[in-house]
Structure formats: C-alpha cells, structure tokens
C-alpha cells in the first residue's frame, strides 16, 4: 500500500513539473536590430531563443513578418521597410515565438531607429502639426537690416526645396533653399535669394549652419551673402527655431552692401530629399 502511495506521489510531482515547464515562456536574446542607412532601407534582425521555435516579428503592432518558419534557436531576417508608414523615427517591435507544443509567447517591446525623415505625430497632434506647418510655410520671419548706417525692418521667408540626407536622425547634411526678403522703406525693397546651407549638429544646440547665397533686387543690387545660423530649440520635434546673421556684398558699382540678423524656423517637412 505504501509502495502504491509512493508511486502515486511521484506521478503527481512529475505531472506538476511538466505543467510548470509548459508555462515557462521562451526567452529572446537580441543580437542585432537596426536599419541600414542606405537605400533600400532594410531592417536587419537576429536573435537567439532559449528553445527551438518558430518566430515572427511585428512592427508597430501592424506589420507582421515571418522570421523563422522552421523550429530553430538562431533566428535571422532582413526586411525592406521603404514603403512602410511609421509615426516616428523610433520603431517599436515585438517577437512572437511558437514551440513544437503550440505554446505561443510574445517578447518584451524592442525598438530601432530609422534613417532621417521629418517627424509626424499621429492623432490630434497630426492636425496641430499640419496647421502649424502651414503657418510656418506662409508666415515670414522678422529681421533687422543695417544699410549705410541706417536701420530698417524687413520680413523674410525661406523655403528649403532640396535636402541632402545624412546619417543623422535629426537633420540633413545640408539643403538648398530659395528666399524672399522685403525691406521696408527702401527704394527697391524686394530681394530674391538662392543658396546652400550646411548643417553641423553640436552638443548643447540643435545645430550650427554656415551658408552662402546669391541675391538680387532685380535692379542695381546683385551680390553674394555669406551667413551663419544657430539652431536653438525644436517645436513639435519638427520645426527648429534659429537665429541667423548675414552680410550681403554687392557685385554692382551702384549697389549697396548691407547686414541682416533675424529669427526664423527651419523644417525639412516640405523639402525634397536626395542621397
């Protein structure tokens, strides 16, 4: 009788151990999770699991891809993400595993960075950014102009039209822009500009940006303008407030050189990006 009870207890313990073993979740040990910086943008993922299993990855809770269709413990995948729409430059993902016994587990949330794109938030923030972006596109910036020892007020509007991608997730390496300034109380108040600005990200600031532009007032004043900008802070992670100083040197004998200082907003939201 005692022998029968002992066998019964052993069977109960064995069944308990099996049950406990089945409830243990699979551990995921991430090796690599990054996006390439060159086209085509490819998410490269590799990881180990504590047991052999099938696996798949889900990006931002909506894009699902098979990683391992067979039961293995080393998993690798390369996923082209060019055409996927993300709401930020940081992409969250989870790994889902399935054992031979059919047990399905979901990992903790991991993330990776994608190459530079203008940042757009979802939901109500999207409307806010669109409205604010439209305002930034239309509203000119105030500036102070010194011409022949006389001071003037002006309004300036700059639009980056072509931006050059960089390895940074925040700003392009540089951009080409067009610009129009209206200087009040001058005989020829309108100035059209086109130029290139180089961006350097620096600690403690958003960026510093030397640049060079050509300008014309469509009359007697054409010239070249070296400039220097300092990015101060961002708004909605999309628009950067900056201060710019510029000297304008005329090519024309009847033209006038002058200096400017103004506050503006930079955004690559409406720019065309090239590598």
Q: What attributes characterize this protein structure?
A:
275 residues, mainly beta, Immunoglobulin-like, Porin, eight-stranded antiparallel beta barrel, six-stranded antiparallel beta sheet, 15 strands
How would you explain this protein's 3D organization?
The protein is 13% helix and 54% strand. The protein is mainly beta and 275 residues long. The chain folds into two domains: 25-113, Immunoglobulin-like (Sandwich); 124-274, Beta Barrel (Porin), CATH 2.40.160. It is rod-shaped, with a radius of gyration of 30 Å.
Task: Give the helix/strand class.
Answer: mainly beta
CATH topology of the largest domain: Porin
How many structural domains are formed by the residues?
2
Provide the helix percentage: 10-25%
CATH arch. level architecture of the largest domain: Beta Barrel
First-residue to last-residue Cα separation: 82 Å
The coarse silhouette is rod-shaped
Strand content: over 45%
Mean of residue pLDDT values = 83
Oligomeric category? single chain
Strand order of the largest sheet: 7-8-9-10-11-12-13-14
How many beta-strand segments?
A: 15
Radius of gyration: 30 Å
Low-confidence stretches: 2-23
Topology as a string of helices (H) and strands (E)? HEEEEEEHEEEEEEEEE
Main beta sheet strand tally, sense and closure? 8 strands, antiparallel, barrel
What is the number of helical segments per DSSP (H or I, 4+ residues)? 2
Highest-level CATH class of the largest domain: Mainly Beta
């Amino acid at each position: 009788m005692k022998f029968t009870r002992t066998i019964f207890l052993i069977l109960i313990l064995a069944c308990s151990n099996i049950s406990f073993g089945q409830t243990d979740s699979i551990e995921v040990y991430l090796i690599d999770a990054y996006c390439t910086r060159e086209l085509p943008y490819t998410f490269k993922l590799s990881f180990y699991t504590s047991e052999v299993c099938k696996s798949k990855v889900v990006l931002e809770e909506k894009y699902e891809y098979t990683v391992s269709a067979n039961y293995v413990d080393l998993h690798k995948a390369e996923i082209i993400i060019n055409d996927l729409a993300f709401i930020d430059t940081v992409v969250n993902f989870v790994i889902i595993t399935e054992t031979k016994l059919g047990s399905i587990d979901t990992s903790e949330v991991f993330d990776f960075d994608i190459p530079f794109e203008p940042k757009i938030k979802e939901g109500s923030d999207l409307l806010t950014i669109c409205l604010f972006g439209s305002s930034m596109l239309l509203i000119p910036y105030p500036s102070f102009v010194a011409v022949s020892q006389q001071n003037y007020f002006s309004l300036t509007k700059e639009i980056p039209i072509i931006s050059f991608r960089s390895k940074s997730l925040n700003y392009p390496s540089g951009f080409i822009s067009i610009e129009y300034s209206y200087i009040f109380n001058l005989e020829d108040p309108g100035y059209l500009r086109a130029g290139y600005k180089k961006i350097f990200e620096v600690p403690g600031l958003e960026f510093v940006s030397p640049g060079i532009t050509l300008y014309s007032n469509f009359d007697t004043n054409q010239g070249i303008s070296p400039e220097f900008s300092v990015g101060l802070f961002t708004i909605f992670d999309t628009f950067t407030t900056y201060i710019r100083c510029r000297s304008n040197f005329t090519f024309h004998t009847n033209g006038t050189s002058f200096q400017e200082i103004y506050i503006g907003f930079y955004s690559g939201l409406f720019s065309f990006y090239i590598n």
